[in-house]
């Protein structure tokens, strides 16, 4: 079997021991990493060599809370609830499969070019999203945007159908979970049914929880419980659950997340843009909750660059608490890799023999990485989290296939993607109907 050799790079394995090779090689055979070590591995006939000299090699980033987006920059000056009614719901209710496909292709293009190798994507028209993921080469965990039937989104039956048709496709790169929009569009019975369906199918759950203070107030008024308490009482929480946002948590809710092994996606830049506040991430981490990072949606963030999210994830907490020791660079980098992979049950997130071959190469030959101390992994962590952006990503390997080379997609025509996504938004915009509460 021919191999891919990622040679002569600065190898940040991000394994448990923090192993670092100032000049090393990652060996890939099939869809697995089979070797990681110092020095150069000589190629054999048929091997493909990626020259990583002067570059950082690290695990691909995991975007743990993701919505394919079509209308970036459209009507994005509103707080969450109004934004949903004026922009988000009208767009996704007007979606057709063709628009969803090009929306996903555009979203995945932006993510791939910023070093993301896995997306945890809650949206609609899942067959179109799965086709986009298969075509472009990304690893995608998909879930429907489900709610009670009266809200004219997807149903749990839609999600069950998507699981049966799509889970495990694209050579296993596409998975399907159960998605739940949020509690204002749900009920206790709906949450119980979602848990029962996930258990029946043997899959996980992706849910928004405690995103805004209005959500908490709505839950208290309708159910007499805070959102995470209600999720716990209905059996929804567990180690197979990714709970997105979790901004407005009290101590009891943090305890419940920790006790149930529920993972949290911290989405700091989206939370800030929508005016939703700052999540209690230091307390979540101290309680032992697994916390990953997500960009949310480019429609309520305007960027799918997870490097930008990493910077926000550190600086925001330091600023509001006046403590520069919070959220150090290595921890944040591990949130974007190790923690996201753990939340999804994936064998990715670190560079170790036997792990899935999701690897990115970051070019340091620019001002973002100047000055550079190759002998210091801490210096590399700092540059990656505080100085870099996605434009420094040179190459991406997913499942042992090179999907981005010299910043060019290898399985899609970027110009076509952008052209078709622009046309799709214009067409969907004409079909949108705003229904105010």
TrEMBL record:
Taxonomy of the source species: Bacteria, Bacillati, Actinomycetota, Actinomycetes, Pseudonocardiales
Keyword set includes Isomerase: no
Entry-linked CDD domains: ATZ_TRZ_like (cd01298)
InterPro entries in UniProt: Amidohydro-rel, Metal-dep_hydrolase_composite, Metal_Hydrolase, MTA/SAH_deaminase
UniProt keywords, alphabetically: Hydrolase
This protein's record includes keyword Hydrolase: yes
SUPFAM superfamilies tied to this protein: Composite domain of metallo-dependent hydrolases, Metallo-dependent hydrolases
Protein name, UniProt field: Amidohydrolase
GO molecular function, one term: hydrolase activity, acting on carbon-nitrogen (but not peptide) bonds
Gene source species: Amycolatopsis acidicola
Residue span(s) of domain Amidohydrolase-related: 56-403
PANTHER family, A to Z: AMIDOHYDROLASE-RELATED DOMAIN-CONTAINING PROTEIN, AMINOHYDROLASE SSNA-RELATED
């Amino acid at each position: 079997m021919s191999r891919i050799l990622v040679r002569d790079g600065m190898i940040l394995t991000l394994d448990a021991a923090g192993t670092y090779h100032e000049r090393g090689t990652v060996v890939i055979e099939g869809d697995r990493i089979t070797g990681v070590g110092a020095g150069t591995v000589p190629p054999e006939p048929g091997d493909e060599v990626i020259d990583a000299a002067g570059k950082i090699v690290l695990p691909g980033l995991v975007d743990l809370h993701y919505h394919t987006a079509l209308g970036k920059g459209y009507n994005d000056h509103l707080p969450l609830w109004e934004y949903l009614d004026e922009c988000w719901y009208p767009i996704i209710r007007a979606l057709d499969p063709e628009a969803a496909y090009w929306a996903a292709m555009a979203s995945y293009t932006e993510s791939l070019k910023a070093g993301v190798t896995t997306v945890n994507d809650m949206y609609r028209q899942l067959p179109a999203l799965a086709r986009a993921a298969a075509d472009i080469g990304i690893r995608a965990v998909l879930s429907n945007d489900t709610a009670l039937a009266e809200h004219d989104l997807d149903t749990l039956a839609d999600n069950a159908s998507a699981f049966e048709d799509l889970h495990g496709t694209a050579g296993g790169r596409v998975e399907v979970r159960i998605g739940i929009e949020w509690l204002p569009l749900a009920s206790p019975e709906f949450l119980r049914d979602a848990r029962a369906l996930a258990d029946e199918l043997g899959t996980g759950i992706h849910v928004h929880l405690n995103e805004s203070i209005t959500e908490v107030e709505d839950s208290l008024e309708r159910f007499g419980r805070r959102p995470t308490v209600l999720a716990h009482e209905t059996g929804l929480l567990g180690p197979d659950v990714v709970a997105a946002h979790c901004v407005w948590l009290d101590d009891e809710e943090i305890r419940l997340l920790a006790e149930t092994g529920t993972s949290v996606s911290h989405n700091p830049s989206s939370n800030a843009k929508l005016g939703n506040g700052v999540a209690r991430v230091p307390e979540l981490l101290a309680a032992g909750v697994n916390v990953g990072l997500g960009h949310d949606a480019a429609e309520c963030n305007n960027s799918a660059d997870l490097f930008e999210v990493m910077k926000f994830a550190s600086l925001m907490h330091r600023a509001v608490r006046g403590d520069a020791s919070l959220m150090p660079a290595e921890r944040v980098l591990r949130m974007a890799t190790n923690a996201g992979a753990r939340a999804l049950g994936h064998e990715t997130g670190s560079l170790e023999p036997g792990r899935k071959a999701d690897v990115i190469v970051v070019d340091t030959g620019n001002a973002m990485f100047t000055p550079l101390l190759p002998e210091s992994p801490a210096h590399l962590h700092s540059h990656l989290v505080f100085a870099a952006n996605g434009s420094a990503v040179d190459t991406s390997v997913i499942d042992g296939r090179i999907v981005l080379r010299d910043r060019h997609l290898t399985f899609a025509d970027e110009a076509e993607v952008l052209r078709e996504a622009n046309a799709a938004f214009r067409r969907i915009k004409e079909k949108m109907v705003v229904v105010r509460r």
